[in-house]
Design a protein that fits this description.
The chain is mainly α. It is 86% helix and 0% strand. 0% of the residues are buried.
Length: 81
């Protein structure tokens, strides 16, 4: 990039502004998810962390992996007793 080139500066500013807009949207989405979790806690008395883990497992489609990890931990805990 040639900082003295008006076209390069124009492109640079456009890229920076686009990235800032993306970060703003990302923060708004995080705030929205946080509010949803708070509403679930208030209206359904479901722990926010449990709600978030449930949504994450569904989104990532990795429930089987989570169950396996939990079973492995359970086996290790039982072996330690």
């Amino acid at each position: 990039m040639d900082i003295n080139n008006p076209e390069d500066r124009k492109k640079w500013k456009a890229f920076v502004n686009d990235a800032i807009d993306s970060l703003t949207k990302e923060q708004a989405e995080k705030d929205h998810r946080k509010q949803i979790a708070e509403d679930v806690k208030e209206e359904l008395d479901v722990d926010k962390a449990q709600f978030n883990r449930t949504c994450s497992a569904i989104f990532k489609d990795n429930l089987d992996k989570k169950v396996q990890e939990t079973e492995e931990i359970q086996n290790l805990v039982e072996a330690a007793k």
